[in-house]
Amino acid sequence: MDSSPQPPMTNGHSETPPPAEPPTPFFDPEIFRSYLLALLPPVIGARPSDLEALFDSDFNERVTRFSGEGGGVLYVVKAKDEVEELADDSEQTYHYQLTQHLTYHPSHVLTLALIKRGATLDPTTPLATQLHFLNLFGGEETPYESLHAVVSCGVKPWFDAFVGARGGGKDGGDTKMGIPMTKKKFAELELSLLHLQQNVEIPETHLTIHPVIQRAVEQAQAAGTRPNLSYIPTKTLNDSTFLNTLHAHVNSWIKSIQAVTKLTRDVASGTASQEINFWLSLERALEGIEAQLRSDEVTMVMDCLRNAKRFHATVSFIADTGLKDATDIVHKYNQLMKDFPLNELLSATDLDKIQESLVLIFSHMNRKLRLSPYPIQRALPLVEAISRDFNDQLLRILISYRLPYTPYETLDRLLSQTTNIFRTWDDQIKEFTNVARDVTRKRLERFIPIKITPAHAKLQERTRYLREWRKQHEQLAVMTGPTKGLGSAGMDIGGMDMEEEVKEAYEVVKRIDVLDVSVEGTEIWVAAENAYNERVSRVENQIIARLRDRLGTARNANEMFRVFSKFNALFVRPKIRGAIQEYQTQLIDSVKEDIKHLHDKFKTQYRYSEAFHMSQMRDLPPIAGAIIWARQIERQLLTYMKRVEDVLGKGWELYAEGQKLQSESSAFRKKLDTRPVYEAWLHDINKRNMGVDGRLFEIVRLRGGGFQLAVNFDPQIITLFKEVRNLLWLGFQVPHAITNMAKDAKRVYPHAVSLMETVRTYGQTLDLVENNRGIEWLVAEYRNESQRMISKGVNIRWDHFVNQYDTGRFVSSADGRDNRHIQFVREFASVVSVLQDKTNSVIDLYKDILRAVDDLATCSYTTDAFSELLGRIQAAIDRLNLEGYANLDHWVAELDKRIETILLQRLDQIIQAWSTEFDRTDDDSRRDTVPLRENKRRIDKRMKEEKFMESHMTIKPFVHEIRIQNQVIFLDPPIEYARAAWIKQLHDWLGVVCRLRRIQSSRYEIGLQMQGSVSSETTYTSLLTHFPDDTLQRPFALIEAKVQQLREYVAKWLQFQSLWDLEAEYVFNRLGDSLAHWQQLLTEIKKARATFDTSETQKSFGVCAIDYEQVQARVNAKYDAWQRDILSRFGVKLGNEMKEMHASILKARNDLEHQSIEGLVGGSRRF
After folding, report:
1. Among the listed residues 822, 832, 727, the one whose alpha carbon sits nearest the alpha carbon of residue 779
2. What is 420-469 written as a DSSP string?
3. Are strands 958-965 and 968-972 parallel, antiparallel or unpaired?
4. Which among 337, 181, 187 has a CA at the least distance from the CA of 272?
5. Per residue in 1144-1160, pLDDT tens?
6. Which of 170, 295, 514, 729 has the most CB within a 10 Å radius?
7. Which of these, 1020, 1016, 1022, lies nearest to 997 by C-alpha position?
8. Helix, strand, or coil (residue 92)
9. Phi then psi dihedrals of residue 262, to 5 deg
10. Alpha-carbon distance 251 to 1128, whole Å?
11. Which residue ranges have biased composition labelled Pro residues (predicted)?
12. Are 1117 and 1093 in contact, with CB atoms under 8 Å apart?
């Protein structure tokens, strides 16, 4: 401090230096000396003359070190002077010393700690503001009491006061700053010091060892060998004085050990922690004694006595001490005492922690009492001691909340939580009582009444009463408030501000400790409550007047109840309740009407009520449903009775009308008693032989014949366990045997329901297969798998499920050892589910296929229509193939046969229709072909809109022309063209079906059977081989017949070729001179003219027409020319013949005229 720091330089420029801190002035030890001389006499009771010893040569150095930054604390120690013996009138003297290092010694009566608040001591400031001082009392007693008082009465309250003054609403901030944790640590520290203070001191046992023995052991240890008698001189071993001394030492050991082993304490006195610490400390003390007894010195003493044949001192040594028995008992008792969670209760800082600690404490006791032989007779006072600790801790926490000053919501929450804590205590005590009785019975101990007197009973009653009282006050305050209850009109009635009056009445109670349950505290509470009631009674008078006004204006019972519902919060107050007794009759009549409705509801019976159907929907069994229904009616009845009692007060049934209503309701409640229903159900269950046993499956014979698979599980058992579950919820005591039966049923219920559902699904699936003939081949594999599972399950019994259930609960199935019977249920359900899914899937596909197959018989006779349907069928088959259905090849083959049958019918129909169309007459042809030509567009449009069927088929007629060219007659086109066209048309119609691709089952088999697939037929051409012989021959025969008919007709026209080919002279020479031949020729020529000498220009043959228009005129002209030539020649021939005949006749006449008659007669006649 001799020089100040230089100002810093920045960029070569000096800046104004900050003001330097003034140097710390030197602290004069004389100031501290004066302070001690003024402080110590009154604080530690020292005389100034005795204090001179403090101010030795090192005093200045100590004070300088203490005032500087290094030292933090300085101790003034007051110690007793050690004197051999004090005379009776002599006074105890003390000496004092100043030190910076604290030590503890029994002679130190008191130690004063002087603690600096800052880093250094400032001589300009009074030391009183710079130093803490703290008295630490020592001496013969332990320092636990002093430390406990410092923490509980000084440090902890000061910390709580600071936190509370900062604001209790900053819970979130406090939590972040760790304040609750600090509070807990303070509580734990306080508790630990209290435990140390309360411990029963176990006397320490130090075994006296003879110096000779001690030396011998030390020599052996120095030599590194095991001590033995060789280290003691023989003379000493046989010395009776030495042996007697050893014997006396052993007897003193026995007494000192017995002082520990026979040590006990009254558990009823003190706290629970004292009892726990006593047994734990006793165990440590006994372990210390055992360790001493195992030492080499004790062993050598025993060897010396045995060597001297003094067996009576050695043989019964352990038995006399009682060490073994005491150790055994203490060890067993400490099974209960070790890890006893009492600290959780004693260090609890809030109500939740107290509740949790109670559960922990009693769970520990109930569990350990079954293992430890700790006497129940000691356990009962231990629980009462815990009750005292519980009471103190609860009271400490509740007082810290200052209940009268807290808002009602907070107080109600705290006291509700307190009530729950008391309820938790009662529940735990009930369980502890059961455990205690059970343990007493098992230990065969003498019966003692298990009765515990809780120390918190008065506090429990006070908190309950305080909660009710504050609730009534709050209701009164709300009703007299500015915005609720009586409203502004009732705020100031009779010149009195009711709200202010109620607040002032509550101020009386605020000033007292409401949780003080002592005699004096109770008297103070009663006096305060009376003062409160006096002030509140005036407010009640005003409220009564207001209430009477409103009730007087009420027109009916509902309005009265509405008024009551508004003011019902005040009816707990006797004065207000007494003011509304006059409205009793009206209310009773109203309640009578309500009860009458309940009678009507009950008379309809449960089975016919809406509740019955709702119960079924919510899976409530019938008996439990009926009981719940009856109890609901009873609850409504009680609600009506309670409403009357709430309004009119207790004792309303003493009036005449009230008594009648009470008797009617009592009679009705007897009818609503559900016990007979339960008893009847119990009797019925006991009569039946119900149980979960037998095989898993059973075969049932059906009435109509046949058998059916079923699950061997009585549905009544399912109802039974549901009934038992609901009846237990309803509070009925179900017998143990029925409960066990229901538990067995409940264990197997999931599996039974699963099996029932699986079997039902299996049966439905089989029915589906039966109803859809044709799919059984496809689902055969899945059906066989289901049947294999059924055959596996036939040998399983329900007993396996019941017996293996418990092991399944505690043994994890993660290692793969799942119950194989449960696994069977899952696998069976899975297999049947697969069967159901596959069956439903294949049925949908099969129906699509059947529709497509049926459509083949009625669809349009076109390639597109057939291909679309077969494509749909093939797509469904491909899906079946992808999904892996079995026997698909066989099934598809059967389906293909069915398709072949339908297509064969269509082929037969098309052949018949084609034949019919082909074989139509000329008239039909003319009638049909004319509209076909005229209305071709309209018919084509109609064909697109309608399905093209076989009956709509038409064959387009062909027209052949008879033509003449180069004087040659020929047919164009030839007849063979017609035949080829007709056969092609027939083949096209047949090809619509025959060229369709066959359905295949193995389109997804990639080249595995190449050769076989090549040889297999892919179209329906082979259908043509399935016809009877005449079916397919008929169209071809018709074609040939038509061709022959055409040939014959055309041949007539071709004959006219001779008109040009023949030479006239050849014809004339051929005819010669025979007039008959000429005449026949002329006749035939005349007949032949009918072929071409007509007004028509063509000849129709149905599906074919011969057009002879072109050749008709030329043949006619040629014919006419030929006819004229032949006729003229015939005329010349005829004339010549006539001339010749005429000449012959003339000649014959002349000859006759020249002949004589005689010659004619006589001559021979020749002809």
Report:
1. 832
2. HHHHHHHHHHHHHHHHHHHHHHHHTPPP-------TTHHHHHHHHHHHHH
3. antiparallel
4. 337
5. 999 999 998 888 766 55
6. 514
7. 1020
8. coil
9. -95, 10
10. 193
11. 16-25
12. no
High-pLDDT (> 90) share of the chain, % = 3
Q: Are the beta carbons of 68 and 120 closer than 8 angstroms?
A: yes
Distances (CA, A) of 1133 to 70, 613, 631, 970, 1078: 184, 126, 143, 35, 9
456 near 391, Cβ under 8 Å? yes
Angle, helix 272-293 to helix 240-261, in steps of 10 degrees: 160
Record the pTM.
Answer: 0.43
CA neighbours closer than 13 Å in the CB half-sphere of residue 576: 24
Are 475 and 569 in contact by the 8 Å Cβ rule? The answer is yes
CB 238 within 8 A of CB 308: yes
Which residue type does 829 have? A
CA–CA dist 518, 242 (Å, integer): 65
Token reading at 28? 């004069």
Copy the structure tokens of residue 690. Answer: 């119900």
Characterize 389-419 residue by residue with b for buried, 16 or more Cβ atoms within 10 angstroms of its Cβ, and e for exposed. Answer: bbbbbbbebbeebebbebeeeebeebbeebe
Cβ 581 vs Cβ 649: under 8 Å: yes
Q: Band the pLDDT of 360: cuts 50, 70, 90.
A: very high
Name beta bridge partners: 963.
970
Number of Cβ within 10 Å of residue 359's Cβ equals 15
Which residues contact residue 427 at a Cβ distance below 8 angstroms, ignoring those fewer than 6 apart? none
Q: Give the pLDDT confidence of 122-180 residue by residue, as tens digits.
A: 888 888 888 888 887 776 566 777 787 788 888 888 788 888 777 644 444 555 457 77
List CB contacts of 679: < 8 A, sequence separation 6 or more.
Answer: none
Paired strand residues for 97: 77
d(C-alpha 155, C-alpha 436), whole Å: 42
Cis peptide bond prior to 482, omega within 30° of 0: no
Give Rg (Cα) of the chain: 66
Tokens of 445: 């101990």
DSSP state of 512: S
pLDDT tens digits along 23-69: 556 778 888 888 888 888 888 878 777 777 777 777 877 888 878 76
What are the beta bridge partners of residue 701? 707
Q: Distance (Å, rounded) from C-alpha 78 to C-alpha 96? A: 5
For residue 973, cis peptide bond before it (omega within 30 degrees of 0): yes
Q: For residue range 657-705, what is the model confidence (pLDDT) as tens digits?
A: 667 777 877 777 777 777 787 777 777 777 776 666 667 677 777 777 7
The two tokens of residue 220 are: 């052996």
The CA-to-CA distance between both ends of the chain, in Å, stands at 206
CA neighbor of 513 nearest in space, from 640, 396, 435, 630: 396
pLDDT band at 1092 (very low <50, low <70, confident <90, very high): low
CB 358 within 8 A of CB 424: yes
CB 482 within 8 A of CB 499: yes
The kind and range of the H/E element at 136 are strand 131-137
Looking up tokens 């017609």 gives 978
Residue 1118: how many other CB atoms lie within 10 Å: 16
Strand partners, 958: 1104
Q: 83-97, 295-309, 751-765: which has the minimum mean pLDDT? A: 83-97
Phi and psi at residue 633, to the nearest 5°: -60, -45
945 token code pair? 């809109």
């070729």: which residue's tokens?
1057
- Tell which residue, 155, 235, 248, has the closest CA to residue 207: 248
Spatial neighbors of 51 by CB under 8 A, at least 6 apart, are 36, 37, 40, 41, 96
Let me know: does 458 contact 391? Beta carbons within 8 Å.
Answer: no
